[in-house]
Every structure is written in structure tokens, then in C-alpha cells.
């Protein structure tokens, strides 16, 4: 019986099982990442509505916190999604091609094919614009609106400056990652 189990466990089967699992992780991360964008917009809109309704400008400083936390989570998940694709293209595919004796570009073709779309660069640029608007421009607008209000107190001013620096760092990370 041990020989039958050993025959069923081949390197190619292990690699295909790894591919299935890693694609499931990628799929789950894509869904989670995309929902973070919608949730950020919904949460920010709710804070803005409460701020307008209650006329408490200091509540505007909740939007940068929301965008910093969710923006960082979005960015980390986006990087992991891309890392999974790179791993499949650069590691898993070539190993499976070698074992099976097929050309490297014949294994997991979708992982390469979908990246060759002529509109991919435009879509990537538009996506970074949406990301920067959502996670940087929207919260910075709230900070500026707070600065223009009568609610500015020293502690809140320091908090808003810290948020501005943090948002700048997050925006920089989005741009650095987009370059890759």
C-alpha cells in the first residue's frame, strides 16, 4: 500500500496542487482588495455625512485614519496578488515545464497572456489614479477642510500634520509599487 501512495505523489502533482491552492489565495485576496476600495469610499462618505449633519469639523480627521489603515491593507494585498502571479510565472511554471518536458511558455499561459494586453499600461495608470484619489486625495481634502475650519486646536493640528505625513508616505508607497 505504501508504494501505491508513493506512486500517487509525484512532483508534478504536488506542483499542480500548489498552483490550485495559490490561485485560491490569489482569488480570495483579489475579492478582499476590491472590497477594501468600496468599503473605504462607504466609510468616508458616512463620516462626511455625519460631519455635515453635526457640524463638527474635527470628525473630518477620521477619514485620513480610515484611508491610512484600509489603504495600507489594500496595498499589501495588491502586492501579494502580484507576488503570487510572479511566483507562478517565474518559479512554479518553469519547474512544471521542466518536469513535463514542455516549453516554459506552454505552462500556465494565462499568467503571461493577460499581461500582454495593449491596454494594460493605460488600465494600470488609471488604477493608480483611482487608488491615489481614494487613499490620498480624499483624506487630504478632509484635512485641508479641517484646517480651514474653526475646529483647529493644537492637539488636533498636530494629529492632522501627522496624518498628512503618513498619507504622503502611503502615496509614495503606492507610486513605488506602481513602478514595479
Jot down its keywords.
180 residues, mainly alpha, elongated
Largest sheet: none
Q: Any low-confidence stretches, pLDDT <50, length ≥5?
A: none
The number of helices is 6
Q: What gyration radius follows from the Cα positions, in whole Å?
A: 23 Å
User: Mean pLDDT, nearest integer?
Assistant: 91
Structural class: mainly alpha
Strand content: under 5%
How many β-strands, per DSSP?
0
Q: Topology as H/E string? A: HHHHHH
Q: Please bin the fraction of helical residues.
A: over 70%
**Termini Cα gap:** 49 Å
How does the overall form come out from the CA principal axes? Answer: elongated
Give the quaternary arrangement of the chains.
single chain
Brief account:
With 180 residues, the chain is mainly alpha-helical.
Protein model, in words:
The chain is an all-alpha fold. Helices cover 82% and strands 0% of the residues. The chain has six helices and no strands. The chain has helices at 2-8, 11-54, 62-100, 110-113, 120-147, 154-179. Helix 2 (11-54) packs parallel to helix 5 (120-147), helix 3 (62-100) runs antiparallel to helix 5 (120-147) and helix 3 runs parallel beside helix 6. It is elongated.
How do the strands and helices of this protein lay out in sequence?
Layout: H1 2-8, H2 11-54, H3 62-100, H4 110-113, H5 120-147, H6 154-179
Helix pairs in contact: 2-3, 2-5, 3-5, 3-6, 5-6
